[in-house]
Amino acid sequence: MSARRSAFTSVAALMAAGAAFLTGCASPALPGEKAARADMRATGAALLAQEGRPALPVLRAESPPDEFVRYAVLNHPAVAGAYYDWRASVEAITPARSLPEPSLTFEADIADTLMAFMPGLMFDFMGSGKRAAMGREAAAAAKVARRGYISVVLNTATEVRKAWIELAFIDEVIRLRETSVGTLEQSLEIANTDYTTGRGMGTLADQVRITNDIAKVQSEVDTLADRRTAARARFKSALGLASADPDPAWPQAVLSPTALPGEDELWRRASAANAELGRMRAMVEMAIAGVEVARKAGRPDFTLGVMADLKADPLMVRPTATLKLPVWLEKIAASIAAAEARRDASVARVTAEQLNLAAELAQMLYMVREADRMIAYIEQTVLPNFDRTIATVEAGYQSGMTNPGMIPETQFMALAMRLERAAALRERETAVTDLLLLTADVAPAALSAVATASTP
């Protein structure tokens, strides 16, 4: 009995020693892992935590676009989903760099009776540097996920700004078209008076033409009202609100040109901070780490363990060890070649993205400049000429030299040019929003920790 108790005591001591060994073999955190985890948790606190989370902005009709963007980033489920993907990648670093789980083993010899009873504890060990290399690969994957999160934040901000621009444009067009209806009605009234009295130059054809124009413009106003309904649905979705949710305050704003830095500065910002380019650079880091993992596949892994026969007297202890031999050199070489090919492909994609970025930047700048020229032409040439024409017609009417019907007709043409200006400004601001996305500057800096994660 004393021998059995001694055996159990020895086994317990063996297990305790194994536990102490495990505690001592805890793998240290990789450089940058703590910073990545702190960054992830700070962003999560701003997005998801019940306490300390910034309140959603109170949206008003006069709120600037940045307030709507901030609301969307804090509220949109796509941003939360990208955050959780990032969080999962950060949490995966620890398992990647940690020791494999130990195993409890059991062996028994049985004839007519139980001859031997041997429980044991086994530990798997990787070759030198493998766990660290796998941890670095997981850390690089977390950087890719972080860049993916940044892309979602910026794309969400872009959608809100574009929907805001569309709503502002539609409101402006509806206002101008309703004013056009009033102007045409004045023309119709003058034409009716001229035709009835026979004192002017109004004809039945003029009455019919103006009546048709009024009906056409009114139909456009009705169509624009339907377009505004669709644009509001898009805007509400961009804010992260479902169709069943209460409507937000619809923005009541006038479009105005957004100032941009010079072309060289835009290119510098795009090269340094473009979200897609940053994600691809992070993928290069991950591919490089993958090559390191593949190259260490030729180093053998081994297993160490110990078993104790509880039936033996005195207690018998059986050490065990296994060694995995990486003898399939062709398989190892193929794994290394595949990892190197993935690295080279990632590098090539970065170069291709830089070429695409330059082309997109040039295209967006062209659209902005084209719109600027059209706006300048309308504001500096066309509208002043119409103002002078209207003033001349009014002076001629007062002196009895011109037909009063020319006044509303000229005003109607001026309103049509204001419509052209509004359309050009819409195209310009849409292109500017795409430029801001290229330079990762579409989200306001007031997004606190969320904006911190959006910086390169």
Summarize the structure.
The protein has helices at about 1-25, 35-45, 65-75, 75-90, 95, 130-195, 205-240, 265-275, 275-295, 330-400, 405-440, 450-455; strands at about 105-110, 115-125, 300-310, 315-325.
**Beta-strand segment tally:** 4
Termini separation comes to 70 Å
Low-pLDDT runs: none
Number of helices, where a helix is a run of at least 4 consecutive DSSP H or I residues: 12
Number of domains: 1
CATH topology: Outer membrane efflux proteins (OEP)
**CATH architecture group name:** Up-down Bundle
Bulk shape: elongated
CATH class: Mainly Alpha
Largest pleated sheet: 4 strands, antiparallel
Structural class: alpha+beta
Q: Considering the protein shown, what is the CATH homologous superfamily?
A: Outer membrane efflux proteins (OEP)
Question: Could you explain how this protein is built, in words?
Answer:
The structure is a single chain. With 456 residues, the protein is of the alpha+beta class. The chain has a single domain (2-453), classed as Up-down Bundle (Outer membrane efflux proteins (OEP)), CATH 1.20.1600.10. It has helices spanning 2-24, 33-47, 65-75, 77-91, 93-97, 130-197, 204-238, 263-273, 275-295, 329-398, 406-438, 448-453; strands spanning 103-110, 114-125, 302-309, 316-323. A four-stranded antiparallel sheet has the order 1-2-3-4, covered by helices on one side.
